[in-house]
Amino acid sequence: MNEFLHPTEGQYVQHHLDYLQLNLHNFRLGDGGFWTLNLDTLAVSIIIGGIFLIIFRIVARSATSGIPGKLQNCIEMMVEFVQNMVKEGFHGRSELIAPLALTLFIWIFLMNLIDLIPVDLIPNVLYLFGIKDFRDIATDDLNVTSAMAGAVFILIIFYNIKIKGRHLLTEVLCKPFGVWLLPINILFRFLEEIVKPVSLSLRLYGNMFAGELIFILIALLPWWIQWTLGGIWSIFHVLIITLQAFIFMMLTIVYMSMAQESHD
Predict the structure, then answer these.
(1) What is the Cα 127 distance to its own chain's centre?
(2) What is the pTM of this model?
(3) Which of 55, 65, 156, 229 is such that its CA lies 20 to 30 A from the CA of 147?
């Protein structure tokens, strides 16, 4: 209790970096290990995803062809923006890509947006209900970014097989150096494919983790300078959280487009 109310600087930072975990072996909270769920990450990502779906569902059901309201107008602008990005970056034909891109962009942006909430607000409120550790930024959990990147990677493999069929085997074995350098071709193709989910997950995770850590360090400063530095960093961070959602979406579109292109 004293560590929470009067922590040292190290304890304060560590407190904000600890997850609310559930060990699946003994179903005990707070225990780490391999078979462990980060309950705070799951809760935040599911809640944010639910809010996203509810808002879009309400707007879709109440949409009018006349003069739209502010919320409908905002969502229509986002949908049109994503559609234009898909038209420019995706050179195939698929009914999946646009909804996938929109979902990734909005979901990631909303999860990133929580980083602008004061770092102590949500943890302090939850502490009143007995929850000691809670991280409210889902995208600074490598498990979340890796899961989203992994789902995109599975779709990339699926589209490679669906579009190219047996020609995919020829592409993997013979490109770019010909059949005589088959092992090198396979190695190059493996590296080319595996770097896609790795780059997607680590880029988002690294930027969001660094952003949260800066907010935590600012919170350690005297109160009279916290608001100045925090305000400046928040303004800059708005660009970061938007850009990271956009980059994840655009790379997904580009990778899916590449999966449908032949190297012949």
Answers:
(1) 26
(2) 0.89
(3) 55
